[in-house]
Amino acid sequence: MTANEIRNICLLGHGGSGKTTLAEQMLFMTKGTDRFGKTVDGNTTCDYDAEEIKRQISISLAFAPVKYNNVKINVMDAPGNFDFSGEALSAIRAAECAVIVGNAKDGLSVGMERTWKMLGKKPRMMFINRVEEANADYAACVDAVKAKFGTAIAPIVATKADANKAVTVIVDLLHNKAYDAKGECAIPGDMADEVEALRAELMEAAAGADEELMEKFFETMELSAADMAKGLKIGVRDGSVCPVLCGSAVTGLGVDMLLKTIVDLVPVATDMPAEKAKDESGNEVEVAFDPNGPTAAIVFKTISDQYGKFSMIKVVRGKVTGDMSLYNPATGNTEKLGRLYSMKGKKGEEIKEICCGDIGAIGKMDRVKTGNTLCDAKNVVILEGIEYPAPCYERAIAPKVKQEVEKMGTGLNKLNEEDPTFHVSNNAETHQTVISGTGDIQIDVLCAKLKSRFGVETELSAPRVAYREKIRSKVEKRGRYKKQTGGSGQFGDVVITFEPQNEQEDMIFEEAVFGGSVPKNYFPAVEKGLRKCCLNGVLAGYPVVFLKATLTDGSYHPVDSSDIAFQLAAGLAFKEALPEAKPVLMEPIGELKVTVPDSFVGDVMGDLNKRRGRVMGMNPTGDGETVLEAEVPMAEMMSYAIDLRSMTQSRGTFVFSFVRYEDCPAAAQEKAIAEAKAMAEAE
């Protein structure tokens, strides 16, 4: 097989638009499966995971290779739920063209808008699904899409609907053929004028993509189907044309035409521009799709489940065979490949090679991760990886049985191989394991997988906020530690001045002792005792910052004094002084950049005020959106990912990062202290 006989597409769009059913229909129509699976029955090829079957949504990127007219179409079915947008980004990395699946009943959905934005300059076409249903409105859907995305939108179908607006006939304007639910049919007579007018529009769009075709069109005002296909293919490749088709994934109406259009209009890998990459020294280079060049492939997805571990690769240059050894620049390891597979849902069919432009899987690559490049050791290149969005939703996770902490950690590491969009961190300050992802559904699914695959039941809770404590006034205190036992005793005596400072977060320790009242060799012990105390403040047990401690006086015993005695004496002085030094809590403040459509700016600003946020600026992006910049206490941001979705109909996105600590207002301070006390009592 060669690159010319392969098309790589990904199905993207809003959750519930019918992407998985469309992939199923493509397989069934081309005899890739012997039965037509349904999501409600839990028997589709692409939704095979237990969680996908239970929830009736796609969670992971799935693969469905379709053979049509001697062409292999690698169909990648990406989840539509926004919590799994990382899977869509993996699919976009490997596809030459995206098929955005819409829904004639819902019109222009948020998922279509977000997908369009996510694709950047990637070629795309649209398939408006569910046109056969009563009260579906294909024409209104196309009008909405045109109004949003402009002149690139080029419908290549005409439709005939019944009284309930359900489409009964679809006309392929490119090939001038009509289809109904049973297959090919004659073009209805009452559609002739409309078809002619729409074909003229399409010819103009095709001619506009190529100068040679433009000249031909002006001479004859006519283009053949082959010329139209050539022009549209160029337009699709450079992004100036987005063909729009329609049909029904359930009945199969229009699906044959979609397959034909994919073969005709989707650019093959070798027609695409060279990929950006870096060489071993970090210099920028370009890697062209070349079947005869030294091998280079990108790992764009890892499947790690009960069926084994598979590294999904897209071959950019050369070919990959099972007997090869390829170099991984990210790890410095040379990997002996072994068995290669073509994945269809959960089943892998063993194959001999993966040619340039094709997609396939390598089994049991334990040291290879998503985003890695595998290449010829003599011609090292590092292909561009996948940039996933920063996690924006955090929960503390703990096993129900304390002894299973290690088991939980192992399970999360395994799941992270499959889904690199979530992060796990152990917060030493709050003693919590924190899992960060894109939303509550993603984290809920991860917990369900921990239970089903690794036998670990977990509990989620809001992460604790890492507050700080500081003092606002100067206090001097004596700390005297004396203990007499049977033998030698313990004696340490210090006088320490505590005061606030603004130079650094860490405690500044100084000594101003006169006359040797405390010998120099005990100064480090006094400092050590104070630094230990700074880890747990007197208000709510949080670290003490911006503190200056000066040892001014004290006394010692030539026999009984020791390092430990002076450490304990310093601790006594600390615990007596700080409650009198006007202690206050400091809370972490984060910088928020939230991008929202202009119509939601007022709602979002009102919500930020309720969260004690300070809006620092508003920057219109020029495409109907505004970036709001604000500073917000981190304690108020725990549920922001979910709240922003409901406020903006899932159209808002944000990034949030810590910037500094600030004094906590009285009401927030009281609440934080009460929570800390309750937590201490519970432990």
What does this protein structure show overall?
With 683 residues, this protein is of the alpha+beta class. The protein folds into five domains: 3-271, P-loop containing nucleotide triphosphate hydrolases (Rossmann fold); 275-383, Beta Barrel (Elongation Factor Tu (Ef-tu), domain 3), CATH 2.40.30; 393-461, Alpha-Beta Plaits, CATH 3.30.70; 469-581, Ribosomal Protein S5, domain 2 (2-Layer Sandwich), CATH 3.30.230.10; 586-681, Alpha-Beta Plaits, CATH 3.30.70. It is 28% helix and 33% strand. The protein is built from 16 helices and 37 strands. The strands form nine sheets. It has a seven-stranded mixed β-sheet, sandwiched between helices. Strands 20-19-22-15-14-23 form a six-stranded antiparallel β-sheet. Helix 4 (110-119) links the parallel strand 4 (97-103) and strand 5. The chain starts with 5 loop residues before the first strand and ends with a helix. The mean pLDDT is 93. This is Elongation factor G. Keywords: Elongation factor, GTP-binding, Nucleotide-binding, Plasmid, Protein biosynthesis. One of its GO terms (molecular function) is GTP binding.
